[in-house]
Amino acid sequence: MTIEIGSKTALMLALCEALRDTYSLAAVTNDIFTKEDGEFLVAHHALPEARIRAVETGGCPHAAIREDISANLQACEDLSSQFALDMVLVESGGDNLAANFSRELADYIVYVIDVAGGDKVPRKGGPGITQADLLVINKTDLAPHVGASLDVMARDAKAMRGRGATVFAQVNARDGVPAIVDHVVAAFKAATATP
Q1: What does CATH list as the number for 2-192?
Q2: What are the extents of the domains in the chain?
Q3: Residue 166's pLDDT is what?
């Protein structure tokens, strides 16, 4: 199963830490001209280095998850042929509201937005907000510092997503991470259940 995570390396690390003892994982990161996010995961021992691939997109990382998924698909296939994997976590760089993963690449999509962008972000919509399987509103601790209302964000996320799941989090402090893990595990179990 491929779990796509839009925009946040800290969440990739948290998910690896939470899931690696129970599931066989690999991780793919995307950066324009560097392998920085992959190197971050290696430096923090998210997974063994051989299970982490850093894709240099050479251009907008969002194109590599939507229009031309070949580099990411190849990384996923290479990892899957090397290891018996339960899940591959794929991270996209950037914070473009117009971005979302291709369903040819993603079985489950987690889209992360940042409270520091203000409480207007959920109501701006975009495919990541409206179509992701799970919306994570991260850095809740910053709300008072940027004048953002978490209540407004919750209301607007519900209006934009209907019954789509939303989790408020402070990923670096691991607040909200157990709920995110629960959503990912539930999706994995549903996808791999035998009839």
Answers
A1: 3.40.50.300
A2: 2-192
A3: 98
Q: Distance of CA 41 to CAs 45, 89, 95, 159, 184, Å?
A: 6, 12, 19, 35, 19
pLDDT at 15: 97
Dihedral sign for Cα 161, 94, 177, 73, please: positive
> Hey, what are 132's tokens?
């992701």
Average pLDDT, the chain: 88
Q: Closest by alpha carbon to 122, among 168, 182, 172?
A: 168
Quote the tokens at residue 17: 């830490």
Kindly state the greatest CA–CA separation across the chain.
Answer: 49
Q: Retrieve residue 61's tokens.
A: 């990382």
One-letter identity of residue 110: V
Residues of the chain with pLDDT under 50: 6
